[in-house]
């Protein structure tokens, strides 16, 4: 694989994206988080008929925020999220409003794990977690197609085995 850096040593954008199904995963996860607020406003509207103007404003705000969260944010996250693995490091970029780029040297890799929550299993996705000897914590490569996650774990394990360090 080619080195993902530009002249001068500044890291370029990692090349790989999550699965296109990541957008659906993030949208469904967000939609589930909006169930309680929407039901709360509906119950309030059902039992308190004296504040219709205020209820309409609150309902409008809740629905606008929900639509933004369910439609816009998953698309935005998908546009930002990237990852790449080379013989030297694991590179990730995540976020949407605030973005984080991480570089984890292969020599610092301690474990490589796969996680699949209920929605990820339903959509055939997985998250690969690369635990390193770093105070910044593990590097997560989320919303990969299951096949890509399995290939990534195999690839990382093989690369890490070639780098005989103590990962400390």
From TrEMBL:
The UniProt keyword set, sorted, is: Membrane, Transmembrane, Transmembrane helix
Keyword Membrane (UniProt): yes
Q: Which domain of life is it from?
A: Bacteria
Where are its TM segments located?
24-47, 53-76
Q: Write the signal peptide boundaries.
A: none
Give start and end of each YdbS-like PH domain.
Answer: 79-152
Pfam families per record: bPH_2
The name under which this protein is listed is PH domain-containing protein
Question: What organism does this protein naturally occur in?
Answer: Nocardia acididurans
């Amino acid at each position: 694989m080619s080195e993902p850096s530009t002249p001068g040593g500044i890291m370029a954008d990692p090349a790989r994206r999550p699965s296109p199904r990541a957008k659906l995963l993030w949208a469904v996860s967000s939609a589930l988080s909006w169930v309680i607020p929407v039901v709360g406003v509906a119950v309030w509207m059902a039992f308190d008929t004296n504040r219709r103007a205020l209820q309409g404003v609150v309902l409008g705000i809740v629905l606008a925020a929900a639509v933004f969260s369910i439609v816009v944010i998953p698309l935005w996250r998908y546009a930002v999220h990237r990852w790449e693995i080379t013989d030297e490091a694991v590179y990730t970029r995540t976020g949407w409003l605030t973005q984080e780029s991480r570089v984890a040297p292969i020599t610092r890799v301690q474990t490589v794990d796969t996680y699949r929550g209920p929605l990820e299993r339903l959509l055939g996705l997985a998250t690969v977690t690369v635990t390193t000897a770093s105070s910044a914590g593990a590097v997560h490569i989320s919303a990969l197609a299951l096949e890509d996650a399995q290939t990534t774990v195999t690839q990382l394990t093989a690369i890490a085995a070639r780098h005989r360090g103590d990962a400390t």
